[in-house]
Amino acid sequence: MQLSRQAEALHREPPQRESMSREPVYRELADTLRSELNRYIAGEFLPAETQLAARFDVNRHTVRRAIDELVREGSLLRRQGKGTQVLGRPLVYPVAAESAYSQSLSAQGHGVEAILLQRRPCVATREEAGHLGLEEHAPLIELQTLRRLDGQPVSLIRHRYCASRSDLLADYKSGSVRQFLAAHGLPLTRTFSLIGARLPSREEASVLLMPRHLPALTVLTLSRDADGHPVEIAHSTSRSDRFQYQIVT
């Protein structure tokens, strides 16, 4: 497909003339690129801007503005030194008492990985202490995990437990934390979830390969053991362009 010479000329006009045009040429190109994204697998890269400019017979500035539109939408991600990467469509994660992240998404046919990034001691905030029935600043043990779906990073999770669980958690290396605990005689049930949104930190955006202007979904989750005792408080930060949370009652 070639964009019209007339549209390209209009794109070069001053703003007051462009506003009278049918559609700015970069938006025409953005519409075309958007319609072609389903031909790509998540994680693949678009052709270089010079190739796209030659294909559509436009200048690189027009291509760049079109790609910027799709980056703002969360459909594409610029990777410095690598190119423009196609992102996957949002996934539906059912939030229910017994649902487990890895199990739920594996059942939808996705390859799920959970990688341990860090294990460290910390102390309970006032909010965490209230949920876990501990004193403020009580010692905790934290596991920070990165979740990948089909090879793409999508969620950072901080799992926090009373420090008395440190010996048990010392054996955790990777995979579903919930399944690990169940296999060691500590099955958990989600009893409280609080969903929110905020802009990611620089570190979160870097690990999750997301633009910092794109909001991240946050979920605070409290899980209890079979006797109803609070065991885990988890803070997850996920790409909002990759997730839709479905509340199951």
Could you say how many structural domains there are in total?
2
Number of helices: 10
Elements, N to C (H/E): HHHHHEEEHEHEEHHEHEEE
Cα radius of gyration in angstroms: 23 Å
Secondary-structure-based class equals alpha+beta
Word description of this protein:
- The structure is a single chain.
- With 249 residues, the chain is α+β, with helices and mostly antiparallel strands.
- It folds into two domains: 5-86, Winged helix-like DNA-binding domain superfamily/Winged helix DNA-binding domain (Arc Repressor Mutant, subunit A); 91-247, Chorismate lyase-like (Chorismate lyase).
- Helix content is 31%, strand content 33%.
- The chain is built from ten helices and ten strands.
- It has helices at 5-11, 15-18, 25-36, 49-56, 60-73, 101-107, 126-132, 166-169, 177-183, 202-208, and strands at residues 76-79, 83-86, 91-95, 112-123, 139-149, 152-162, 189-198, 216-224, 230-239, 243-247.
- A six-stranded antiparallel sheet has the order 4-5-6-9-8-7. Strands 1-2 form a two-stranded antiparallel sheet. It has a two-stranded parallel ribbon with strand order 3-10.
- Helix 3 (25-36) packs across helix 5 and helix 4 (49-56) crosses helix 5.
- The protein is elongated.
- Residues 5-21 have low confidence and may be disordered.
Features:
single chain; 249 residues; alpha+beta; Arc Repressor Mutant, subunit A; 2 domains; 31% helix; 33% strand
Describe the structure in brief.
This protein is of the alpha+beta class and 249 residues long. Helices cover 31% and strands 33% of the residues. Keywords: DNA-binding, Transcription, Transcription regulation.
